[in-house]
C-alpha cells in the first residue's frame, strides 16, 4: 500500500505547466508540513514536493497561493533523470489524487475539494460556531 495524507502550507504559488503533445495540465509546489515534535523548542517542518495533474492541477493553481493551508492525499513516487551536467538526479515526490483547500483568499473561509476519481468539484461553506452556546 502506498498512500500518504498531508496538511501543510504552500511555500510559493503553484507552478502550472502543460505537457508537450498531449497538453495535460500539471501543477507542482512545495508543501511545508509541521513536525509533531520539535527539538529545543524550535518549530520544525518538512518540505515535501507535490505534483497534481489535469483539472485538479488547474484548480489548485487558480485558487491557492503562497502561505495557504491545504490538504493533499496521494502516493509517494520516486524517479530519476539525467541533469544538464550529466549527473543522475533522484527525486521523491507526492503525486496527489485529491487536494482540499483548507484556507482560501482574504474573504470568508471556505472549504473545497476536487476528487480526481469522481471528476467533480465540491464546494462547501464553513459555518462559524458560537462558543457561547456550549454548556461546558
UniProtKB/TrEMBL annotation:
Domain of life: Bacteria
Gene3D superfamilies, sorted: Nucleic acid-binding proteins
GO molecular function, one term: DNA binding
InterPro entries in alphabetical order: NA-bd_OB-fold, Primosome_PriB/ssb, ssDNA-bd
Keywords noted in UniProt: DNA-binding
Keyword NAD belongs to the record: no
Pfam families per the UniProt record, alphabetical: SSB
Matches recorded under NCBIfam families: ssb (TIGR00621)
Known partners and oligomeric status: Homotetramer.
Protein's name according to its UniProt entry: Single-stranded DNA-binding protein
Provenance organism: Clostridium ganghwense
Underlying gene: ssb
Amino acid at each position: 500500500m502506498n498512500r500518504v495524507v498531508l496538511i501543510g502550507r504552500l511555500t510559493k504559488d503553484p507552478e502550472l505547466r502543460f505537457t508537450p503533445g498531449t497538453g495535460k495540465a500539471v501543477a507542482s509546489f512545495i508543501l511545508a508540513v509541521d513536525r509533531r515534535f520539535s527539538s529545543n523548542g524550535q518549530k520544525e517542518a518538512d518540505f515535501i514536493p507535490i505534483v497534481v495533474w489535469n483539472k485538479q492541477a488547474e484548480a489548485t493553481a487558480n485558487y491557492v497561493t503562497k502561505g495557504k493551508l491545504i490538504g493533499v492525499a496521494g502516493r509517494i513516487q520516486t524517479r530519476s533523470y539525467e541533469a544538464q551536467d550529466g549527473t543522475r538526479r533522484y527525486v521523491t515526490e507526492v503525486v496527489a489524487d485529491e487536494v482540499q483547500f483548507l484556507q482560501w483568499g482574504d474573504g470568508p473561509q471556505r472549504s473545497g475539494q476536487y476528487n480526481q476519481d469522481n471528476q467533480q468539484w465540491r464546494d462547501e461553506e464553513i459555518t462559524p460556531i458560537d462558543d457561547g452556546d456550549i454548556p461546558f
